[in-house]
Write a structure and sequence with these properties.
single chain; mainly beta; Elongation Factor Tu (Ef-tu), domain 3; SH3 type barrels; 6-stranded mixed beta sheet; 3 helices; about 45% strand; globular
């Protein structure tokens, strides 16, 4: 059975021709560009896709084969992206994971309980922040060592001690 490793997530659809924004962990970028096939999670399973074209500036914009409309691209937005273990160089695995790997994790506050899923991690000049939908609105949560109590990679949860009033902003 093939082993897959999560290397990033798809972002929002870009344009009308079926392109998508991609967020790939920096340590896996070379492997991503060299891969003959990438895998995007659909219904809990990695589904193969071939890259038709890419725009290698920030943001990373990818056109996948057989994804020819904005509607099709929207169906792939916000999904985990994988590579086969055999397509990842050993050197890539030796680098530490960045905070963007937390996308898709559930934020649990020690006081408020479950806050929501991290939809996106933004790298702002001052700090990294998580974009979370909370009670129907977007909330930015700073990802700092002072606020993160623990990270459970297996259950995809991050326990935090959020400052009082942050969720009301």
């Amino acid at each position: 059975m093939e082993e897959y490793l999560k290397i990033g997530r798809t972002g929002k659809a870009f344009g009308t021709e079926g392109a998508l924004k991609f967020k790939v962990e920096e340590q896996f970028l070379d492997d991503f560009f060299d891969a003959a096939v990438i895998f995007i999670e659909q219904m809990g399973k990695p589904v193969p896709f071939f890259i038709e074209g890419l725009h290698n500036d920030a943001p990373l914009i990818i056109k996948l084969e057989e994804v020819d409309s904005r509607e099709t691209a929207l169906g792939l937005a916000g999904k985990d992206v994988f590579l086969r273990r055999e397509d990842i160089a050993d050197e890539s695995l030796e680098q530490p994971f960045g905070l963007t790997a937390l996308e898709g994790f559930r934020v649990i506050d020690q006081t408020a309980g479950e806050v929501g899923l991290i939809e996106e991690v933004l790298e702002l000049p001052q700090q990294m922040v998580a974009v979370v939908q909370y009670q129907g609105r977007e909330v930015l949560i700073p990802l700092t060592g002072q606020l993160i109590l623990s990270v459970d990679a297996e259950n995809r949860e991050i326990e935090m001690a959020l400052p009082e009033g942050l969720l009301e902003l």
